[in-house]
Design a protein that fits this description.
Blueprint (H helix, E strand, L loop, with lengths): L12 H46 L3 H14 L4 H13 L3 H17 L4 H14 L2 H12 L7 H18 L3 H13 L5 H13 L3 H14 L4 H14 L2 H14 L4 H16 L8 H25 L16 H12 L14 H20 L4 H17 L1
Helix pairs in contact: 1-2, 2-3, 3-4, 3-5, 4-5, 5-6, 6-7, 7-8, 8-9, 9-10, 9-11, 10-11, 11-12, 11-13, 12-13, 13-17, 14-15, 14-16, 15-16, 16-17
Length: about 400
């Protein structure tokens, strides 16, 4: 039986069109509502998965984090934060197979927002993983001068510190030095930041730069144990043993458990008491030090010869005539009678000649028998300082 409209419904064309239009609108609204609810449900599920992924990444479970971030992205494929977090997890997994994928996500994000500091920092770390110094420097700089969502000054400082640490690890000293100079011009008013900068200068073997940072800290906190110990070591490394002695003595007084500072202090004391070229000592004290250093050099020479099975007896057939230790022994023996003439005004060059023998013994025994200790180390340091002063 054919279908017919109820009698009460008008059969005119406009009315029917209006009814059908209303039905379509209601249908589209219902579908739109369902789509919206589905999208919101998916986004809520994505947020939950994202938080789980962050927890897994924080715990170092990168495989689980990668899987969870991928699931979050299926719920919200355009979410840039999910993409960034997935890229970070891929990178930090240390699986070379994942590095290209991480970089592809990050490059896509960078193309959409090249000024985004977080994306640039992530790309810098990928470049660091690859060992590409130039790319790492470029992206770290982009991060420093890019747009941060919060606390930009602190984040820029952390990015520069991270770059410096990377450059030092790669032994890129020239680039690290440039970044260190830039770091000191932008440090916050925070003593901990200056201590950190000083430590970076120490790693770069720029001991004068380290000392300047430690002294700045000590200007505000004269009893800061970390700064006292660091300043003492920095001064020690520069060869300023008198200044090192002052800092290290204070460091030990403030922190009696600081054995490292105590060891540096002991050597600094020995240097200052053994150096015959130290200013403001009498001629008698100078001559006493020369004689003591000369005797110590003989003891060191004999100990090294015994350790390396070298017979210092020139007549012994078992000792090669070319042995450097034997040559040193012969030179020491030839100079020994001159010690009694140290006080003679006509022998003005004799102190230098005697100490040259001492320094040669300390240097060559260090090469043959390893780094010395105690007074021998002090004499080796004096020889290095003496050579640096004559260049």
């Amino acid at each position: 039986m054919p279908w017919k409209l109820p009698k009460r419904i008008p059969r005119s064309g406009p009315v029917i069109l209006l009814i059908l239009t209303f039905g379509a609108v209601v249908g589209f609204a219902a579908v739109g509502h369902l789509v919206t609810r589905y999208t919101l449900n998916q986004q809520a599920r994505g947020r939950k998965l994202y938080q789980q992924g962050l927890a897994e990444a924080s715990a170092g479970n990168y495989d689980n984090a990668i899987e969870t971030f991928r699931a979050a992205l299926t719920c919200d494929p355009r979410n840039s934060q999910y993409q960034l977090s997935l890229a970070r997890a891929l990178r930090d997994s240390n699986d070379p197979a994942y590095l290209d994928e991480a970089e592809s996500y990050l490059v896509a994000l960078w193309q959409r927002a090249p000024q985004d500091a977080a994306v640039n920092l992530a790309l810098a770390r990928v470049a660091a993983h690859r060992g590409s110094i130039d790319d790492a420097i470029r992206y770290y700089h982009n991060a420093m001068y890019g747009v941060w969502n919060s606390d930009p000054d602190a984040n820029r400082n952390r990015a520069r510190v991270e770059l410096i640490e990377y450059l030092l690890k790669k032994n890129a000293r020239a680039q690290a030095d440039s970044e260190l100079i830039a770091l000191t011009t932008s440090l916050p008013r925070d003593l901990a930041a200056h201590v950190q900068a000083a430590q970076l200068f120490m790693q770069a073997q720029d001991y004068a730069g380290a000392l300047a940072q430690y002294e700045l800290v000590l200007h505000f906190e004269p009893q800061n144990p970390q700064a006292l110990a660091g300043a003492g070591e920095a001064a020690y490394r520069t060869g300023d043993y008198a200044q090192a002695q002052r800092f290290l003595r204070n460091a030990v007084n403030v922190d009696p458990q600081d054995e490292t500072s105590r060891q540096f202090l002991e050597i600094a004391d020995l240097v200052l008491h053994a150096d015959p070229f130290h200013r403001h000592i009498s001629d008698a004290e100078r001559n006493r030090r020369i004689a003591a250093d000369f005797a110590q050099a003989e003891t060191r020479l004999k100990e090294c010869a015994q350790k390396t099975n070298v017979n210092l007896d020139a007549a012994a057939p078992s000792t090669p005539a070319s042995s450097p230790l034997l040559s040193l022994q012969q030179r020491w023996t030839s100079v020994k009678p001159d010690l009694q003439h140290l006080e003679s005004p006509s022998e003005a060059d004799l102190p230098d000649a005697v100490m040259d023998v001492v320094f040669q013994i300390e240097q060559q025994t260090a090469a043959a028998c390893g780094q010395p200790q105690g007074l021998d180390l002090a004499l080796l340091l004096i020889s290095g300082k003496r050579e640096a002063g004559t260049q």
